[in-house]
């Protein structure tokens, strides 16, 4: 057992000893832990001043490999709820049981309940339509913990859902008129976004794996022929590989953050970037 595993085990033990979960003491904000940064916006917009989100995979971190710190595991001992993505993301597959063990009284909210996954793609939040469903799951969880403020949580969700729907409608109109039919990404995170707007997501990686030298040569030839002008890369990953591919096909690299802390703003920015590619 390595040193980090021992420290994490001690942290879980401390968390179990501290107790937690259930309803927040009167006058205190509900502490809601989440897996990734976009969920923090969902929690804040639905819960308003009555909640405080704790993000386990912080901005800039890569959820396929990230491990919670002992401090984060101790924080979980005070959380009333955990908003689980529930979509099969690697971080939760590796850590969800230990997260549950850190605070057995904590309410687990399954944000992906009722969402149909496509080709086992876990990036369900990169659909504005799914985001409304995920925020609704958080709303219902907060109402369960704090029924006295149920009307507030419902009102906040309705306002946020209206913003999500308005941006969805705007992007649908903009992309339909842009001439864009496909886009190229390095890591295949944007499949649900592509589906929502009738686009095709092209990817350098194949199901999250780097292509072989032979596959890369074939891909470069295909992309050159397609005259793809932009390759979108996630800032959580090293950009040198994306830049090398872009140089081979005569494209430029733009970043598109699949784990944005400011979710609505980044979804708008990505949609506008795609619209610009088509002009």
Structure commentary:
The chain is α/β, with parallel strands linked by helices and 279 residues long. It has two domains: 3-170, 3-Layer(aba) Sandwich (Rossmann fold); 177-277, Rossmann fold (3-Layer(aba) Sandwich). It is 49% helix and 12% strand. It is built from ten helices and eight strands. The strands form two sheets. A four-stranded parallel beta sheet has the order 2-1-3-4, with helices on both faces. The longest helix has 27 residues, at 150-176. It is globular.
Q: Which regions contain 5 or more consecutive residues with pLDDT less than 50? A: 1-19
Average residue-wise pLDDT:
89
End-to-end gap: 56 Å
Shape call: globular
Fourth CATH level, the homologous superfamily of the largest domain: Nitrogenase molybdenum iron protein domain
**Remind me, CATH topology of the largest domain?**
Rossmann fold
**SSE order:** HEHEHEHEHHEHEHEHEH
Helix content: 40-55%
Count of discrete alpha- or pi-helical segments spanning 4 or more residues:
10
- Whole-number tally of structural domains: 2
CATH classification, class level of the largest domain: Alpha Beta
Strand content: 5-15%
The total beta strand count reads: 8
Q: Judging by the overall fold, what is the CATH architecture of the largest domain?
A: 3-Layer(aba) Sandwich
The major pleated sheet works out as: 4 strands, parallel
Structural class: alpha/beta
Rg on CA atoms, Å: 20 Å
Q: Strand order, main sheet: write it out.
A: 2-1-3-4
């Amino acid at each position: 057992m390595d040193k980090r595993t021992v420290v994490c085990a001690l942290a879980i033990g401390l968390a179990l000893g501290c107790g937690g979960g259930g309803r927040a003491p009167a006058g205190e904000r509900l502490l809601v832990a989440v897996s990734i940064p976009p969920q923090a916006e969902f929690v804040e917009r639905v819960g308003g001043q009555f909640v405080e989100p704790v993000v386990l995979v912080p901005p800039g971190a890569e959820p396929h490999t990230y491990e919670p710190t002992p401090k984060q595991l101790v924080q979980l001992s005070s959380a009333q709820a955990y908003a689980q993505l529930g979509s099969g993301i690697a971080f939760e597959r590796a850590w969800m049981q230990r997260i549950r063990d850190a605070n057995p009284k904590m309410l687990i909210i399954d944000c992906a309940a009722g969402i149909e996954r496509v080709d086992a793609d876990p990036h369900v939040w990169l659909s504005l339509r799914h985001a409304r469903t995920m925020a609704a799951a958080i709303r219902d969880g907060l109402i369960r913990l704090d029924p006295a403020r149920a009307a507030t949580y419902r009102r906040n969700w309705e306002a946020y859902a209206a913003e999500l729907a308005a941006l969805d409608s705007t992007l649908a109109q903009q992309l339909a008129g842009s001439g864009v039919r496909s886009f190229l990404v390095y890591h295949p995170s944007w499949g649900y976004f592509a589906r929502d707007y009738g686009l095709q997501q092209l990817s350098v990686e194949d199901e999250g794996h780097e292509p072989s030298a032979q596959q890369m040569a074939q891909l470069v030839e295909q992309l050159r022929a397609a005259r793809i002008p932009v390759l979108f890369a996630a800032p959580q990953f090293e950009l040198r590989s994306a830049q090398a591919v872009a140089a081979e096909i005569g494209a430029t690299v733009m970043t598109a953050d699949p784990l944005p802390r400011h979710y609505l703003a980044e979804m708008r920015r990505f949609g506008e970037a795609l619209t610009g590619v088509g002009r």
